[in-house]
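If you are new to this repository, start here. Below is one unmodified record pulled from the training split, so you can see the exact layout before writing a loader.
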Amino acid sequence: MKLVDSAYVSPKTGKRWIPVIGLEVHCQLKTRTKLFCGCEYTFGASPNSLTCPVCTGQPGALPVLNEEALALAVRTAQALGAEVASESRFDRKNYFYCDLPKGYQISQFDRPYCKGGGIALANGRFVRLARIHMEEDAGKAIHDRGDATLVDLNRAGVPLIESVTEADIQSAADAQEYLAALKEILQYTGASDCDMEKGSLRCDVNISVHPPGEPWRTKVEIKNLNSFRYVGAAIEHEIARQVAAYESEDPSRYPVQETRLYDPQRGETRSMRGKESAHDYRYMPDPDLPLVHVDAAFLERQRAHLPELPAARRERYEKQYGLTPTDAGVLTSERAVADFFEAVVRAGGRAKEASNWIQNELLRWVGDQELGLERFDELQLRPSELAEVVDLVERGTIQNQAGRKLLREMAKSGRPAKVLVQELGLEQVQDAGRIEEWCRAALVGKEKVIADVRAGKEAALNALLGPVLKLSGGKANVQLVRETLKRLIAETEPPLNP
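And here is the target side for that same chain:
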């Protein structure tokens, strides 16, 4: 379906349909221990090895709130411009499932820890947040073992914040942009690593469609989307499905309030279960947890931990360093990358060159098995070392290609640049005699190129650089090569012999 002026146009009838989209994003907080007990949590640990009487719901076990989880939650709320409540409450959300050992989830219902705030999109639309609340995660049920279901309770009790938007999103692209901005903020504040492959960030989509000027229609939830690409694809498919259902004029096909799952292999959503309402969960205040009080001093301590946020940093990079919006966007997409870039500049590296090396080399190393680099912040290279390599290239001591090789060896071995330049023989040859010898050899048989250069077509020299560099093993100083070639062509009548 085609999106035109915030409305999707049916390819069948040409009728316009307005999508109404809201997102619920579950984010796992980056704390050492769980929300209400002292159990540590590590992704991939042996099943049921990180549990205790509290997180497995044993009789008589009492929860105690993790203050670090509250601090990270408050920090996130401040970064998003939300209003933190001075007093909030934990509630029991009752439902039965095999991965919920207590038979209820400790969450927040009518008195969440913050409300309001939001994120501005590039098109000027502002996506408002209705609320953010804290809650504990459930365990993990594994259903792919034939007739058996296995349950791992390691994740039970892990601290989450769930941010709920108003229905301000009107396209798949807007939803993906919002999620990307939210992920950046969560990572910048240190609240979460947002690793979607490990379940640290999960998204539910609520969506309905209606003709312009008509009331909103039935809302459908799409549950547990674990990539931005899937969020976009699920929204596009669900809009098309709902439009087709309404245009069939068969009431039996009209969307019903339900929870659906997205199947990425088939590119479609399918029904999972009927959607519960709040009263189905029989919320009640948790009698084992006191009210949560947040005073002004606590708020100020958390605000002091807030870094410069991505949007502000992008704007500053464009003004202070003269970077393009694209370059600034890439560098600020992760806090670790932005911090590294600024450290390189402080170490003497020129901003534009540092940006190019980080984007064209270092970011490409992420996922490199030889380097064992899964994330940028695992990089075994100091900013001052990149600044040194950039300087070596800028001064003509080594070539660009040699600089790339040098950087990789430094990251692998941890050895200094000066030592590796000598050991690997990377230093450029600047001996005028040797360079002239290579240039004379490269000019043999190149009468057409020589004629073009003499005719003022200096770009023709580029055809000679490759042969010279090949003869020199890539070590000849390019600037000296250019100057020597121009001198030889200007001074010597063809044919030019070695």
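Two things worth knowing about this chain: The chain has three domains: 2-293, 310-423, 432-491. Residues 323 and 352 are 7 Å apart (CA to CA).
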